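User: Could you check the structure of this?
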Amino acid sequence: MASTTVTPARRAAHAVVRRTLVDGAFADRALHGEARGLDTRDRALAKQLAFGAVQRRLTLDHVIAEHVDRSLEPDVRAALQLGLFQLLFLDGVAPHAAIGEAVELAKPSPGHRLVNAVLRRVQREGAELPSDETPAGAAIRHSHPLWLVELWWDWLGPEQTRALLAADNEPAELALRVNSLVEHDLDDIAGTRHGDAIVVDGPFDALAHPGYAAGAFMPQSRASQLVAPIVDPRPGERVLDLCAAPGGKTTHLAALMEGTGEVVAVERSPQRAKALKATCERMRAANVTVVTADAKDFDGEHDFDRVLLDPPCSGLGTLSSHPDLRWRVSPAGIDRLAGEQDELLAVARRALRPGGTLVYSICTLSPREERLVTADVWRTLPPVDQTDGFYIARDGG
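Assistant: Sure, the predicted C-alpha cells are below.
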C-alpha cells in the first residue's frame, strides 16, 4: 500500500490522544501545545478529532475489544481510536483518508497492519453498539462511566439522561460575553446575539481578535453568564466573589456595577491571582480588588452587601468542553468536594451583612453538590438550554 501523508491536524490530534493515554494529560492542555502553529482551520479539526476520541474512549475501546484480543502500544491504540472515531461519528470525512492516515500514525510499529485490518472491517460492516435502554448499555453507547450514568438515571430519569449523555458528546458552543465597560466594534464576529452574549458560528480564535486585547469580550458560556445577574449587584455596593479565578463572573459583576463600588475577588493561588488581576485590567474592571488568600480563611465579617460563592466542583455540567473530565471524576471525589463546599458556605454566610444576598453557583449536574437549597434555584441542562449544566441558588435579595 502506498504511503499516505498525514495532515498536521491529524498528527496533532494523535499526539494529544497518546498523551492522555500515556501521561494522563489533560486534553485541552495537550492540545494547546501540540496544535501550536496550526492555522485556525487545522487547529479546529485537531480539536474536533482529539476531543472526540477522548470523549468516546469507552465506546471506541468497546469496538476495539470486539476485534483485538491483545494489548496495544499507545501509538497504535491512539491511531485506532482516531480512525474509528472518524468512521463511526464524523460526517464529511473521507474513509480512505481516515484509514490511511491512522495507519501511517501507527507506524513504525507492526501494529499498523492491525489498524488497517480493523478499520477496513469496520468500514465494511459497521460496529454494533449496545442499546441505551439500560444504564450499562447507555454507558458504552454514549461513553460515560457507569456510576455517572446510574447517578443521572436515578435523578433525572432515563429519557433526560440519554439526552444529556448525547449532548455531552457534541461540540461545546463558543459564547462570548460583551463587556459593557468597553466600547468596541464586534460586528465582524459571525454569530447569534442573545442579550450580552454572542454565540459564535464556526471556527474563531478569540485570543487573536483585537476585541479580546481591548477587553471588549470575555469567552464565557451562557450558563456562566446567568450567575452575575442573579447576584444582581448594584452600583456602589460591596460585593465579595470567593474562589474568583479565572474572572468571568468577577468582571461581569464589575460591569453590572458600572465600575463603581467594590468587588473583592479572593483567589488562593498566587499564579491564578496574578492572572485574575491581568484579566480585570484587560476588562477595564477597575473596581475589583484581588485578594490572594484561601477562601476558607477569609476574615470578612458582615462586610458585604452580596456574596458570590462559585466553589470548586466536579464540573459535570461541562463535559462537552472538557473531554477527559468524565474519566477523572469519582463518587469519592464528589463527597470530598461537598465537604469543602460546606466549609466555604459557612465563610460566605459570615461575610454577608444582615439582609444581604448570597448566591451559590456550580458548573455541575450532581445533586450531592447542591449545597444551598432555597426557594430561588436555577438549573441549566445542556440538551435543553444548549449550554453548560449549572446549578445556581440565591438566598436573600
